[in-house]
Amino acid sequence: MKRTREDKAMEIVWQSPAIRPQPQDYIFRDGRRHVRPYYFEFICHVKNRWAGKTIVDLFTHEFKGRPYDYYVSAVKSGRIQVDGEMVPVSHIVKTSQKISHFVHRHEPPVMTWDISILQEKPDVVVVCKPASVPVHPCGQYRKNTVVGILEAEHGLAPLFPIHRLDRLVSGLLILARSASKADYFRQQIEGGMVQKQYIARVAGAFPEQEQVVDANVNHDARECRSTTEISQSGDDTPIKGKTACTKFTRLSTNGIHSLVLCEPVTGRTHQIRVHLQHLGYPIANDMLYLSKHVNGRSSEGMGADRAAANSSPSPPSGFRENLSTEPVDSDEDFSIDPMCTNCPNLVPKGYDVYEEALWLHCVRYSAPGWTYECPYPDWASLS
């Protein structure tokens, strides 16, 4: 990449996925694990519908996280390139051209709770995933993931997650240490040989008898939300979504909340969460699925942020609940990039700093020949 005098003076080092996370990459503040901002190259190829647009218009319309003026400056300085070359702001893009965007990357923070290693074997690692941490690189997250943290702090690499937990969900996570072992687990999952168990704390007094929800799950990726659909007798209208089935058994209740064992037969996005909402007993701090349609049962629910502070696993020493969103004294921790739209803040713009743990926890995975279990979290006690 051609660099400006300003870039050279800053001694910019561009990172790639080949550069492994290190312990010094993390900054701990106010009970949260931050990632020291770093320079990174994002690569994409021009889609058919993008062809014919100027490079600046393309980024302005398709990547709305930054303003027009930023993209003009990024093209002029060479931080946005086409096929490895600097181009003018009037450049018209063509199908399949490679576009590189060199950015000062700020990852969202996660809670500082440890990733407890439950078992470590030559071919598999089993951990207790804390809420707020994504499993693997996705979206804005790369180093602030279970895979990244285990590599940085325990030298465990490569790791192949054989199942996924949503970012706000905690509990059992199985990671293979080779591609062949990962394939072994995935074949068992796809063959329906694996039994999965979760626990959830829901709003209301859940029924004593087992509840089975057999309702299609239709996930809207844009809204990050799922809905349920059931075909009506005599209605030939095709229903959307994927078939999904979950069994629910009440473990205990105090009349306000209930602890429920959840056994998903299938594995759809937000399946347990939306099936519990379908029953009228949503997870008691799940603000995405708590709604006016649950007949008042959610009145005792609380947001995931307050629930994390009130009933979450004990955090490490040094945790504080007065979580600051003010700009940090970045000279102590990272260098300011004059073109970065997030600097001087450590937290990227648009991140909801108060979104935390969900009362949903994976406790057990089993199949012929193996069983892995995870301890219950503190919020599982209704006393």
TrEMBL record:
GO terms for biological process: enzyme-directed rRNA pseudouridine synthesis. Its EC number is 5.4.99.-. The active site is at residue 166. It catalyses: a uridine in RNA = a pseudouridine in RNA. The keyword Isomerase applies. Residues 123-278 form the Pseudouridine synthase RsuA/RluA-like domain. Residues 299-331 are annotated as: Disordered. Responsible for synthesis of pseudouridine from uracil. Belongs to the pseudouridine synthase RluA family. This is Pseudouridine synthase. It comes from Malus domestica.
